[in-house]
Specification:
101 residues, mainly beta, six-stranded antiparallel β-sheet, four-stranded antiparallel β-sheet, 1 helix, 12 strands, 4% helix
């Protein structure tokens, strides 16, 4: 099963824009994710979970899922509820990571 999703910009009238972009591809039991800014990623079909990118700054990304919250730097792997997340790169507000069920 392969899934590819791209979601882009959310703007609030009169108050400017809050850029939130992400894309992910899934195959087998893993999804490769690229994000720019905060985002909510719907992995219900793949893992029965939603993953929220809370913030990306100072070379780290903060993620939430299943009531768990973790901050990871490049190269780190941590459990996020029933999911395993590995961060492959963080550049400014861009975060690249793998999610496994």
């Amino acid at each position: 099963m392969r899934r590819r999703l791209v979601i882009a910009v959310t703007c609030v009238a009169l108050f400017g824009c809050a850029a939130s972009q992400y894309k992910f591809t899934c195959s087998e039991q893993a999804c490769e994710v690229e994000t720019a800014g905060p985002a909510t990623l719907d992995f219900q079909r793949e893992f029965g979970q939603t993953v929220t990118v809370v913030e990306t700054k100072d070379g780290r990304v903060t993620l939430e899922a299943a009531g768990a919250r973790e901050t990871l730097a490049m190269g780190e792997t941590k459990a996020l509820g029933p999911l395993q997340v590995t961060v492959t790169n963080v550049k400014g507000e861009n975060a690249y990571f793998t999610v496994k069920g």
